[in-house]
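Encode chain A's predicted structure.
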Amino acid sequence: MAWAIAACALLDSGSAARADEPAASPGTANVAPPRLVRGGEVPYPEGAHGDVEIVLELVVDKDGRVQDAHSVAGDEPFASAATSASRDFVFEPAKRGGAPVVAKIRMKVAFVEAHEPSASPAGPAPPTSAPRAAKPTPIEEVEVRGVKREAGKTTLGQAEIRELPGAFGDAFRAIEMLPGVVPMASGLPFFFVRGAPPGNTGYFLDGVRVPLLYHLALGPAVIHPGLVEHVDFYAGAPPARFGRFAGGFVSGEVREPAKRFHGEGNIRLFDTGLLAEAPFAGGKGTFLGAGRVSYTALLFSAIVPEVRLDYWDYQGRVAYDLTPLDRVSIFAFGSHDFLGEVNEDTGRVKTVFATQFHRLDTRYDRKISGGRMRLAVTLGVDESSLGDEVVSRDRMLATRFELEKKLSDDVLFRAGADGTFDRYDLLDETTGSRGTSDSVQTIYPPRSDFALGARADVVWRVHPRVEVVPGARFDLFGSAISDDVVVLGPQAARTTVIPAVDPRLAVRTKVSPSVTHVSTLGLQHQTPSFVVPIPGLQVGRLSEGLQSAVHASQGVEVALPWKLSLAPTVFVANSFGLTDAVSTCGTDFDVDDPRCVRRVSGQTYGLELSLRRAFGERFTGFFSYTLARSTRLTRPLGFRQRGGVSSLGQLGSTLRIAGEFDRTHVMNLAASYLLGAGWRVGARFYFYTGRPYSEEIRGVPIPPYNGYRYPDFHRFDFRVEKRWTFGQTGYVAFVAEWLNATLRKEAFSLECASFGDSPDLTTSLPGSRCKPQEVGPITIPSLGVEGGF
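Encoded structure for chain A:
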């Protein structure tokens, strides 16, 4: 038996779940460290011998629960046993000025082996020696210290996500507040990241690729927020483990299995969510179930009877520890969305758009000396219905191997290999057969795609102040179009195989105790894609080449007084062979329009700025600002003047124009304040400048291309929470939240004057032919009750 005998040495002020930013380092006289109130007993590993001490690093949240745990000193299998047991520890949380805060501590766990007594010929048998039960010693030293983050990565912890107004507690919705992220429209969860369209951003959940992260329209994330530990965001040039997308990456990491029974849930105006986890087999195994179901269909039937909107999602996980070092687990999750139109005469519901995806991930994890390894196999199905006629479907099989190994105190080696196989089909539901119109099959032909890859990088501390991360990944992309597809696009081949090499480099240099310079550089490749991610619908013109992008950034991280951190970054992203539909078709297009897969080149450059104060404090705040220019080099479709007659055609010369979603200024300002007695209030101001547009004649853009701008937009979001706590971990909270509480409308479409069959461009003044039209307001009011134990 082993007991936790000392907890000392380190307390990170602020939100330690936000390991992405350095904290300031003022004095800590008013910081009360966490105090262990339940747990502390750790079973001695079977088959082990000796007396061993393990040092753990624990992240303790504001409710006293252990958010994260890992060993920093000690040998296996003792380190794994201590780490696993510590997740059930319950603390009185750290406090600053009487307010609970998230904290990081180090705790020493002493294992003392029980010894059998030697045989005695006479007299009563002496009792078996028992392990010593040392009490936790007081914390003697408290040191506020910053935590180093990975170059180019921004992490949003659960505390930040919960307290951010307008995010509704969803991990992935909070992404829109980060610098470099440009919205398509207020409230819609699709973003351009450093100029790359939404379809060029990779979405991952615990290493599993997913087609989207949000429910239809203004819906929440497809994953229960209680399952997500934190979200990592890379705007460009990510580590080598991320690839096959030319833009940014959003990676959600799920919580480790807990060894105690716990749960949480919420009831809101438009949906209900629930999560529960319980151990079995004496704590060796755990089962987790979670899900969300909406009742928007009932709401819409009462408010807008001709519209039917519905969504649900689910998550399930079973994990079992074969040994203290080996674990097997199965993780299943999926999502469904439906948007329909009700016929007032017949009552029949016609599908406007429906989508669903499902994943089943089986994995084997092993802890090795100084690292870990994982082997996983994933099955998946993605499907979308475009009306009642066409269904697009993707059946996926993927496998991956991951390895992390600490070669020395200064070198961490990371490597992996993976393969993905996708079968894409288009089904005509009216005939029940495969295949659709020629124009659709030209862009999205039924086919089999594959991608095989290997990657490696090294986190190398070449100097106490300098960390270098060189790396690379190699991918082989292939596509085989079905033999029964007759119509092929230009330059198309039935079978195509293309290799790609993506080098990556990141450098962190600590200039002074409070200033760190960060530099990233990387090349990224991706197969042709649609402008927004649609499950099961993927552009199939690999024979025309890969999309590619070169990302580079230079920035600094500055720790300021009052727990503020400042991070300015300059960046540039050059894209080649981009299938950006909005650059060649504008924003009003059909998915089967061949013009929408023409290739363009682009460049985005600018300045990103973030100023943050740790969430979890009594007063917390976040400010982000992006000053950027996004351009496209393209050949617009327009009217040509010949002999006084205008004709429609492709313009002969390439032009560099502003991107369709080039927003010069994007700004977020959020603040939250703990009033006391469980009350917390927060507000957020969101502003961005209007995107460019071209005037149109009969739907065709005319010069100056993207020479005009829609009006600027801003909105205010509010959040009020009242929380009651009971026991060690129980709580109930009432939450009122409102996105776009001031009901601001946004201009998103054009109304243009009508002209004859042969328009004369001189008959009207430039800038007067079209007028921006407002839509909305897009607003989401929410009242709800949430709780957990």
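Residues 153-251 form a domain with the Ferric Hydroxamate Uptake Protein; Chain A, domain 1 fold (CATH 2.170.130.10).
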